[in-house]
Amino acid sequence: ETGVTQSPTHLIKTRGQQVTLRCSSQSGHNTVSWYQQALGQGPQFIFQYYREEENGRGNFPPRFSGLQFPNYSSELNVNALELDDSALYLCASSLGGQVSYNEQFFGPGTRLTVL
Amino acid sequence: GESVGLHLPTLSVQEGDNSIINCAYSNSASDYFIWYKQESGKGPQFIIDIRSNMDKRQGQRVTVLLNKTVKHLSLQIAATQPGDSAVYFCAEKAAGNKLTFGGGTRVLVKP
Prior knowledge:
Strand content of chain B: over 45%
Number of helices of chain B: 0
Shape of chain A: globular
Oligomer: heterodimer
Structural class of chain B: mainly beta
Radius of gyration of chain A: 13 Å
Number of strands of chain A: 11
Radius of gyration of chain B: 14 Å
Largest sheet of chain A: 7 strands, mixed
Largest interface: A-B, 33 and 32 residues
Distance between the termini of chain B: 21 Å
Helix content of chain A: under 10%
Distance between the termini of chain A: 31 Å
Largest sheet of chain B: 6 strands, mixed
């Protein structure tokens, strides 16, 4: 296990609703990245938070937003849910900073179903 | 459990044989390449990485080969075991710590 936890495990919402997903990073890590994984595909980068600031964003609309807290845990918020938002949402924690690469440790994901 | 990939290319391999999984990447500016293993119901698990200035790196039972000329990455698993059955993804890292993942390959190990 990576020490990265996510909640809830599964979630069912209807179109137009809002959802908040949570992630607790591995101890000592200050960076959290969020990914969306549609069924049968690789994860797609949504955004990354480093020390409570957004530090890069993928090709996702503004209704996908996030937060990182002083303890480096993070939330992903999605507003106005659409059917295509149904996916596995993964968070990954890492130790960011002035190095070019640090291994990302993934949580088990939250399976979101939008009806 | 969670089904990670319903329509992924599949590699069937006999237990004890070697497996080779291939991946084409797109960004010549990527400076790290990483292989992940994803089992049903779990998040991706790091296997091995390689920096862009290397062409080969070995781990325990795994070897990654990088051919920058043709933008190709491969993962070799020696003496494949039933526990190696999973979906394997390659990922590349360019600016920042953002990972771009490939489409994945399902590996099925036959006893």
